[in-house]
Design brief:
Layout lengths: L1 H18 L5 E4 L6 E4 L3 E6 L11 E6 L5 E8 L4 E6 L5 E9 L8 E10 L7 E2 L9 E2 L8 E4 L15 H12 L4 E5 L11 H4 L15 E3 L4 E6 L1 H16 L3 E8 L12 H14 L5 E7 L9 H14 L6 E2 L3 H6 L7 E4 L5 H11 L5 E5 L3 E2 L13 H12 L5 E5 L24 H12 L5 E3 L8 E5 L4 E6 L6 E2 L10 E7 L9 E3 L4 E2 L9 E6 L1
Parallel strand pairs: 1-3, 2-8, 11-12, 11-21, 12-15, 15-16, 16-17, 18-19, 20-21
Antiparallel strand pairs: 3-6, 4-5, 4-7, 5-6, 7-8, 9-10, 13-14, 22-23, 23-24, 24-29, 25-28, 26-27, 26-29
Length: 539
Amino acid sequence: MKNYRILPFLILGLMIGHLAAANVKKASYRNKSIAINRWEVIDLIFKAKPNSSPFTASFEAVFESPSGKVQKVPGFYNGDSEWLVRFSASEAGQWSFLTSSEVKALNAKKGKVTIKEAMNRGQKGGIVVPERDKRHFYYEDGTPYFLMAFECDWLYALDYHNEEALPKTEHFLNLLNENGFNQVVMNVFSFDVSWKKDELLAKHPEHEFGGPQDIYPFLGNNSNPDYSALNVEFFKKLDRTIALMNDKGIVSHLMIYVWNKLVAWPDMYSDADNMYYDYVVKRYGAFPNIMWDVSKEALYYGRADDEYILERIERLRMANYFDRLVTVHDYGFCKRHPDAVDYISRQDWTFDLYQNMLGDYNKYKDKPVFNIEHGGYEESPYVVFPGSYINAEQCLRRNYQCIFAGVYSTYYWQGTSWNAVIWNPFEQDESFYKPKFEYFKHLTSLFSMYDFTKYKPVPWWNQAGYCLKEIDKENYLCYVPKETFQYRKEFLFKDKKPVYIKWFNTLTGETTEELELNQKTDFESPWHMEADAILIIRK
């Protein structure tokens, strides 16, 4: 009987241990047996008293792989006389390193790290755009990365005050994983929103994360900033979030700045501005799940200009030793300076979304295109920021419009994207609106069966929907809105060969049995006026 009483505590202990496991692996650089898996992240610890400017002090290590590959890695100050070199790698074998620094105690230090053949927790490496296919994203191991993003600006804050574990973050990220989302668009730091807040939110302080007076990346706080130094504790907490995302295979689309969330930023180009910016790049570049974004809505709000953003990109690339992809959340900037970014980001609320995204697909043949914000913000119990479209099916349709134009997309829920974060929506009482995350589980499952990188938009065959064609094959995916009564495809029958079709319900994921057709016909969705559908055609 005693064993049964102990069992729940053992389970709880294991759960807490798992939740606390989001911290990055650490080892003294002097350790003679440092070993990690491919793409696992490790912090090599160095000890030295800080100089007068530890956050800007020069400190880096040069690693060399067994094959002779050279990898520079920036070091950074971690408080309490601790300095870190954060490292990850894909090539197996023993890597050697040598440090250089203006801090004498950190200079000319040697060590070795063994990279084992095993991949860390099923990781596939960083996100890349290979020369063989510049339109699409891939993992380093060559697997296609079907980007399906989810915005959550205040993700950093969910468990900030929990010193032991990340239960809210863990629960929330598990929901994203279960429903097909593999990227979070997030800010390093957001303070609060400028628009009027829903009165109902005041009755649920557990969901309000805006306006924290004790969270700030600099010393002091957002109301009384002290730009003389950075708040290391803030970044240690952010480490846990990024590490947990990495463990779960979720990419952090990390926006270094945000101008419209009331953050008290230091002046542009100031020493404090450069200190913060450089430190973020040095601290998080080793994580394979990082994609850089200089700023959310970078050229809005009258703060920054092209010159500043260009300077920030150049500055980022100088320290971007792990070659993480870089973009800017500003379509005008991306249009004017496409060579400065690795992929095009677009914010487009218009009703002509499909045509605009198709135009981008055709214009930027050597870069992926990402619709980072399409004005579809699904409704929630709180009216946070309704945008132009709040109906769940319409928000889903706008994501499909992007995808069927050949580009990637993002989902927003008003209950998590900004200061209000209902991190466990399906555990709320019946009065709370439950988001339709499952719609995206079905969407991403469809494109796990049909490789997005193998398809291209063929608008001349859209007719009463949108059409993707498999490259070099007579296979088609046709998005058919529920209002469409008939979908015609006469060209399929011109060679008198049989056509095989089945239907996919975008709301339920249900798929019909495949039918063989031998004569010309009009296609009628089994869910006319009930749900949008995908007509799957093969010849």
